[in-house]
C-alpha cells in the first residue's frame, strides 16, 4: 500500500464527502451501498475543510468501572497513544463505543482533542460522546454520536482493531474522508483517481443545473438532456 503524496491528499481535502462518494460510485460501483456513515451523528463545531487521513482505531467503554489494575490501565492508555502517533500521517481517529448506551461517558474533550492533534490526528469519528466543545483543540474535527457532560468511567478497551461506527466499518490504516455530512472509507487503490472522476461528474451535473436556471426550462428540455 503506497501512501498518498501531500498533493494527492490536498486534492481530496478540496472535495466534500458527498462528492467523494459520487466518485466512488463510478470508480468502485460495488461499494455504492457500503463504506460510509448511514446513522445520525452530531458535528458540534463546523470544519473549515474536510479531513482526510489514515485511520487509527480503538474501542472504549464508560458505563462501569474498569476491572484492570491502575498500572495495567495506564499501560494500555499509553499503548493507545503510541498507536495514534505511529505509522503514516495525517490520521483520523475512529472510536467505537461498545456500551449499551454509547456516549454515556465522553472520551473526547479539551485534553484528548489537544493530545490527539499533537500526535498527528486531524479529528475523530465516533458513536460515543464529545464535550468541552468550545475548549476543544482548534481545527480538530468532531463527528460524534452525541454531546455529553461527563467522563463517567471512560477508558480504552482494544487498540488497532476493526470498528463499526455509524454503520461504517473501518480498519487500522484505512483512508478516511470526513466532513459535516459524514465520513467514507476510500479504497487506497482508487484514492488518487477520485479528483478526476469527481470533476467529470461535476461537469455533467453542471449541464443540468445550468439548464434548469435558463428561461423556458421545462420537462421537454429535461427529456432532451437525458436523451
CATH topology: Glucose Oxidase, domain 1
Give the overall form: elongated
Distance from N terminus to C terminus (CA atoms, Å) equals 42 Å
Helix content: 25-40%
Question: How many individual helices?
Answer: 6
Corresponding CATH superfamily: Ribonuclease E inhibitor RraA/RraA-like
Question: What's the number of domains?
Answer: 1
Query: Rg to the nearest angstrom?
Result: 20 Å
Tell me the number of strands: 12
Second rung of CATH, namely the architecture: 3-Layer(bba) Sandwich
Largest sheet: 7 strands, mixed
What oligomerization state is this entry in? Answer: single chain
Would you mind describing this structure in some detail?
This protein has 227 residues and is an alpha/beta fold. It has one domain: Glucose Oxidase, domain 1, CATH 3.50.30.40. Helices cover 31% and strands 24% of the residues. The chain contains six helices and twelve strands. The chain has helices at 6-13, 17-27, 70-85, 110-118, 194-212, 219-226, and strands at residues 51-61, 91-97, 106-108, 121-126, 129-130, 141-143, 146-147, 155-159, 163-165, 168-170, 175-179, 182-186. The strands form three sheets. Strands 1, 2, 4, 6, 8, 11 and 12 form a seven-stranded mixed beta sheet that branches. Strands 3-5-7 form a three-stranded parallel beta sheet.
Amino acid at each position: 500500500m503506497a501512501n498518498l503524496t501531500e498533493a494527492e491528499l490536498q486534492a481530496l481535502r478540496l472535495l466534500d464527502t458527498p462528492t467523494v462518494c459520487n466518485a466512488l460510485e463510478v470508480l468502485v460501483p460495488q461499494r455504492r451501498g457500503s463504506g460510509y456513515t448511514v446513522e445520525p451523528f452530531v458535528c458540534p463545531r463546523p470544519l473549515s475543510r474536510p479531513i482526510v487521513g489514515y485511520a487509527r482505531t480503538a474501542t472504549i467503554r464508560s458505563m462501569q468501572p474498569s476491572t484492570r489494575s491502575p498500572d495495567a490501565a495506564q499501560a494500555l492508555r499509553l499503548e493507545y497513544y503510541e498507536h495514534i502517533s505511529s505509522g503514516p500521517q495525517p490520521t483520523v481517529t475512529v472510536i467505537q463505543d461498545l456500551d449499551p448506551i454509547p456516549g454515556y461517558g465522553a472520551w473526547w474533550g479539551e485534553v484528548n482533542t489537544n493530545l490527539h492533534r499533537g500526535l498527528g490526528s486531524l479529528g475523530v469519528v465516533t458513536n460515543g460522546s464529545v464535550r468541552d466543545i468550545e475548549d476543544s483543540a482548534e481545527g480538530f474535527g468532531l463527528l460524534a454520536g452525541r454531546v455529553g457532560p461527563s467522563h463517567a468511567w471512560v477508558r480504552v478497551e482494544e487498540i488497532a482493531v476493526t470498528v463499526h461506527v455509524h454503520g461504517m466499518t473501518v480498519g487500522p490504516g484505512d483512508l478516511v474522508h470526513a466532513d459535516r455530512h459524514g465520513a467514507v472509507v476510500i479504497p487506497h487503490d482508487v484514492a488518487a483517481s477520485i479528483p478526476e472522476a469527481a470533476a467529470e461528474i461535476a461537469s455533467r451535473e453542471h449541464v443540468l443545473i445550468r439548464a434548469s436556471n435558463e428561461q423556458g426550462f421545462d420537462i421537454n428540455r429535461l427529456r432532451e438532456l437525458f436523451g
